Amino acid sequence: MPSNGMKAVAVLNDSVVLKANPLEEIAASTVAVKLTPMNFGAYPMSNGLTRLATRFLGDPGHVDDLKGRIGHDMEAEAAGDAGLVTFTPDDIDWDDEVRLALEERAAFSPDALTGMEASLRFAGPETLETKIFGRLSAWQNWIFQRPNAVGSKGALHVYGTGQRSEFDRRRV
């Protein structure tokens, strides 16, 4: 891990991992999540909602509850309880959990990661923008037509054969 900050927070495409009980060497500068007014409307997504409103689409009252936490530092347990981080491994599990998450991502082709990111960027209620940029562009025109998917060693071609795909990681 390159820096003290990375020993406490890992941000992946679809998850945020916050270390519970940070190591003593970074305890003085404990990593915390802090909400600001900017989280509640300044930058709406293409679906017209904030990222928090999209994340908690099934529980809109939760976003109102989170407004009461504006300006408060939330360490790992509180951020996890609030649903703001994906999981909170402790010191014992941290290195293995981050390694596994990175290995999982490395198993995806660059095109699949692009599609996963597009799915997250255009989540929530469907609008004309989300249909065009999230669903049609990313999946039909990008992922399923690329050599990493349909090439001779692409993921769709070797699926079910027991062979591993060979991805051109320079293509994104």
What would you say this structure looks like, in words?
By secondary structure, this protein is mainly alpha-helical. The chain has two domains: 5-105, 2-enoyl-CoA Hydratase, Chain A, domain 1; 109-158. 44% of the residues lie in helices and 6% in strands. The chain is built from nine helices and four strands, in the order ββαβααβαααααα. It has helices at residues 24-27, 51-55, 60-67, 76-81, 91-106, 110-121, 128-143, 147-150, 155-158, and strands spanning 9-11, 16-18, 33-34, 73-74. Strands 1-2 form a two-stranded antiparallel ribbon. Strands 3-4 form a two-stranded antiparallel ribbon. α6 runs antiparallel to α7 (128-143). The radius of gyration is 19 Å and the shape is flat.
Element string (H = helix, E = strand): EEHEHHEHHHHHH
Q: Quick check: average pLDDT?
A: 79
Distance between the termini: 26 Å
* CATH topology name of the largest domain: 2-enoyl-CoA Hydratase, Chain A, domain 1
pLDDT under 50 segments (min length 5)? 1-7
Pairing-aware structural class of the strands and helices? mainly alpha
Assembly annotation: single chain
Q: What portion of the residues fall into strands of 2 or more residues?
A: 5-15%
CATH superfamily membership of the largest domain:
2-enoyl-CoA Hydratase, Chain A, domain 1
The total of beta strands comes to 4
The percentage helix is: 40-55%
Strand order, sheet with most strands: 1-2
